[in-house]
Amino acid sequence: MDFRKESKSFAKDLVAMFTLLFIVFSFWYQPFKIPSESMVPTLLVGDFLLVDKQCYGYTNDSFRMWQKTLPLPKFSKRYFASKKPQYGDVIVFHNPKDGNKNYIKRLIGMPGDKVQLKAGIVYINDKPCKIVETDTYSLMSKGDYKIFKKYIETLPNGYEHTFIKYVPFGQGVLDNTDVYVVPDGHYFVMGDNRDNSSDSRVLETCGFIPNEHVMGQAKYLFFSSGCKWYQIFDWLFSIRFERIFTRIK
Questions:
Q1: In this structure, is residue 20 part of a structural domain?
Q2: Which CATH number is 32's domain given?
Q3: Residue 18 is assigned to a structural domain of this protein
């Protein structure tokens, strides 16, 4: 056995594998892990999902690795888009207002829309979004067991999605807001956990999302676990098998 020859072959295979992964993650689907409870019940802490980067087309922030945008020439517009963002899409975006982190939220307002919350109800262009209470939702959050109320909200395009609320309508910190006029080329986003989400309602830490900062649409869950990586003996029992290979709605 020629050790040097085998080592070179292994090195070539390793480079080829990482090159392939780099191409896939750069141009098609990029993995993303859910770090917070802001999108519960749609997305849970420990969910691993795939972000479709091609659907909206490419900008500089489409090419982000480990919270860093690759140093490429500045794009003047999006390229190769197959669709535009729509009401209800769950999007991943670069947020320079919070340490250049990647955020994930639901698209609620389009460019030119007027968005306002009155007593916890979302108004878009002066029309309230219809909501229907459906059930309760339990969640262990920071050591406390909480019971939320679960609702289905209908957006202007007819898209229905689920959100939860812990504080009674009108009593949440962000339940009553001024009118937000979404600038051209920007979007208004919110978390599905309405009382625990820093989103476009908070202009200082998130605000309106520029189109060029949108990385892509969250499409599929490919893994989900309720434990930390170092909790080795809990790995198998914490896997949420029912969530694996499901589409994000």
A1: no
A2: 2.10.109.10
A3: no
7 among known catalytic residues? no
Can you point out the beta strands (E) in the chain?
A: 29-33, 47-52, 64-65, 68-69, 90-95, 101-109, 114-118, 121-124, 127-128, 130-141, 144-154, 160-165, 180-181, 186-190, 209-210, 214-224, 246-247
Task: List pLDDT tens digits, range 169-186.
Answer: 999 999 999 999 999 999
Catalytic residue among 38, 200, 224, 225: 38
pLDDT at 23: 55
> Residue 9 domain-assigned?
no
Domain that holds residue 38: 28-247
Greater model confidence, 123 or 80: 123
Model pTM?
0.87
10 confidence band (pLDDT: 50, 70, 90): very low
Q: One of 53, 62, 105, 198 is an active-site residue; which one? A: 105
Determine the Cα–Cα distance for residues 116 and 197; give it in Å rounded to an integer: 16
Q: What is the DSSP string of 97-134?
A: GGTTEEEEEEEEE-TT-EEEEETTEEEETTEEPEEEEE
Give the alpha-carbon dihedral of 73, 79, 80, 82, to 10 degrees: 140
Q: Is 38 assigned a catalytic role?
A: yes
Domain tally, the chain:
1
CB-based contact 52:219 (threshold 8 Å): yes
Q: Tell me whether residue 150 is in a domain.
A: yes
